[in-house]
Structure formats: C-alpha cells, structure tokens
Amino acid sequence: MQSINQNTLPDFRNLGVMLRSLLLANSMGLLVAIAQASSWQDIVGRLVNISALLQPVLLLNLSLLFMLNPWLARLTYKQGAIVVLLLAMAVTLMIYQLGDTLSIYTIGHGNFHSGRIALLGSVIAGLLLIYFRFRAYPLSPALDAARLQALQARIRPHFLFNSINAVLGIVRADPKRAETALEDMADLFRMAMAHDGDLVTVRREVALARQYLALEQLRLGERLKVNWCTENMPDDALLPPLILQPLLENAVYHGIEPLAEGGLVDIKLYRNGNEMHLEMYNPRQEQGSHHIGNKIALSNIRERLALQFNVEASYTVEIGKNFYRVHIKLPYVKESPQSPSSL
After folding, report:
1. Burial 147-180, CB ≥16 within 10 A → b, else e
2. CA distance 245 to 241
3. Average pLDDT per block of 10 residues along the chain, 343 residues long
4. CB of 192 within 8 A of CB of 242?
5. Rounded distance between C-alpha atoms, residue 342 and residue 220, angstroms
6. How far apart, in whole angstroms, are the C-alpha atoms of residue 84 and residue 64?
7. What is the pLDDT of residue 229?
8. Inter-axis angle of helices 175-194 and 202-220, nearest 10
9. Which of 12, 55, 185, 290 could be bridged to 65 by S-S, CB 3.0 to 4.6 A?
10. Closest CA relative to residue 244, chosen from 280, 284, 196
C-alpha cells in the first residue's frame, strides 16, 4: 500500500477507487437523464440509452488505468491527469463511433456530436479526478492522527501501570527475573516507537506481541494461556503496526483478567491466496464492565484499516455468550528486498 500523497493520482488498482468511480459516474449519468427527460416516464429510456454508452466506456477506461497504474504512479499529478483525461476522451469517442456504426446509440450523429461526446467523457473523468483530489486532503493528516492514536493506546496509563506493578511484584522474590522483565519492557517500548512507516512485517508485529504477553504473564501467571498459530503466514508479509497488541490488550484486560480461572487467548495468522487473515479468540464474562474499552480499540483499528486499505480490508467481531472473536482480513502485501520494515 502506498502512502497517501496529495501529489499523485488515485491508486487505480484499488477496489475502493474503482467502485467509487463507477458509482459517481453512473450518478452523473442519472442526473443527465433526469435533466434531459420531458417526463418521469422518459427518464428510464434516456438512462438506458446513456448507460449503453457509459458502462463500456467506464469498464474499458478502468481496465486500461488498472494496467497503466504503475506507469502513471511515476508521473507528476498534472502529467498523469492529462493522460487520464486524454484516455477518457479517446475511449469515449472510440466506443461511441463503434456504437454509432452499429446503430446502437440514438443520442446524435455527426462529427460535431462525436466531439461533444468525447468532451463529455473527459469532463466526467475530470470531475472524478477533482473528487479524489479533494478527498485526499483530509486523509493524510487523518492517517497520521490514527497512527498517533494507536501509539497512545499502546502506552495507555493503565498498561504502563499494570506492567510496572507486575515487575514490582517480583522484585524481592526474584530480582533476576524482575531485571529481565524491565529489560523486556524497555525493548517493548523501543520496538513500539521505532517504526514510523505505514506497514511492518508479521515477524516484527508477532515479536512485539509476544513480549507484551510475557509482561502480562508476570502479572497473571498461569491464568493467562496463549496459543499461537502462524505457520501459514509468510514472515515477510506486511501489516499495519500495532494491530496485534491493542487486540491482545483487550483480550487480556476485558476477557482473561475478569475471570477467576483465567483462560486461553487463541491467535491465528494465515495467508489465503491474495488475502491475509488475523483471527483472535478469547473467553469473556457474560456480563462484563469492560465493553466500552473494546469499542474504543475497535474504532481505532477500523479507522486505520479503512484509511490504509479502503474496502479491501474488513474487520468483523463476533460476541458470544462467553467468548469474543475478532477476524481481520487484509490484502496480502509482501516485503520488498530493500524495505526497512525488517526486524
């Protein structure tokens, strides 16, 4: 996933960009049909006629932009915008001329009308570019704010307080173990603060999560049991930083800690084709007092996933009578050889 940049075109390989383009262009077609119709009954006929031209133009344009996306990404915004507008004009004119030859369209004839149709195609493309351009402005600071919020959640006062208490509880009984725990805590915070990019490797995220759980086990002892299943997830797969830890903190604080007997946190990471999956399961009390905290963590992670992956990511939660399950689906992104995300 590329960082959001106001100086680049939208990512035409992103499913969300494609869906928005289709929706907005068809909405414009509907408005044109309404404006041209002489009666409500006339709207449907005009919309069908407009759609007969609009749909193939949209699909061919989006297909070409999908293939040209790597090349467009190397251009400046102005250069890329000119290419997109000219492409839209050429595709619209080509489809219209083909349909006119086959007598498919009834929206006018002649070179003058063909020119207006081609111009209309570039106008629609231009309006879409303007929409994505303005939409990008609030996203970049929003992504930074979401990342900052995640870091703040990572060092919430109650987490720091609990971790310190866990170490203090064994200082006299086992000084050597307490010293090791303090070193682990320092490593944990250093890892959490070290990366300022968009994505980190799975191995880095898992390592940080394991260190966090080791600190919590000092406090909860045998009450906290953890089962990891990561064999089917490539180590070089990339995901947003600090996704696992807030989920684990919620599982421990809202699930395991309120139970006198404790319980098992089950974590599964795996790849399925072009998708990555993260599943987490933990027991919970049927009536608990920690549900508000869960909502805060969920909204934080949902926002970051939406900003980074658009509709290609999903976050589902299943709350049972005595269990809590989270399932996150992400597009599979692989670490490049020169990537600084390595642990």
Report:
1. bebbeebbeeeebeebbeebbeebeeeeeeebee
2. 9
3. 52 87 88 82 82 87 91 86 91 81 56 69 88 70 57 52 68 78 75 66 89 83 93 88 85 89 95 94 76 61 79 89 93 71 47
4. yes
5. 31
6. 10
7. 95
8. 150
9. 12
10. 280
Domains in the chain, ordered, with CATH?
15-138 (no CATH), 155-331 (3.30.565.10)
Residue whose pair of structure tokens reads 């759980």 in the numeric block: 213
User: How many CB atoms neighbour CB 116 within 10 A?
Assistant: 14
Question: Which residues, listed in sequence order, are joined to residue 331 by a DSSP beta bridge?
Answer: 275
The pLDDT score that the predictor gives to residue 316 is 92
Q: Which two tokens stand for residue 190?
A: 């250093």
Query: 64 to each of 30, 49, 279, 327, how far by Cα in Å?
Result: 24, 24, 36, 34
Alpha carbon distances (Å) from 86 to 47, 65, 125, 319 = 25, 12, 9, 51
How many contiguous H segments (helices) and E segments (strands) does the chain have?
9, 7
Q: Quick one: angle between helices 77-101 and 111-154, nearest 10? A: 140
The whole-angstrom separation of Cα 337 and Cα 340 is 9
The CA-atom distances, in angstroms, between 38 and each of 11, 31, 41, 52, 288 are: 39, 13, 8, 20, 61
Contact 283, 259 (CB under 8 A): yes
Q: What CA–CA distance (Å, rounded) separates 224 from 342? A: 29
Nearest to 340 by CA among 204, 242, 173: 204
Which pLDDT score, from 0 to 100, does residue 60 have? 92
Residue 1 half-sphere exposure, CB side, CA atoms within 13 Å? 26
| Dihedral sign of CA atoms 173, 175, 180, 186 in order | positive
By residue count, the chain amounts to 343
Residue among 288, 229, 210, 295 nearest 256 (CA): 288
Please give the Cα distance from 341 to 199 (Å, whole number): 7
Residue whose pair of structure tokens reads 């990555």 in the numeric block: 276
In contact, 328 and 272? CB cutoff 8 Å: no
Three-class SS state of 173:
coil
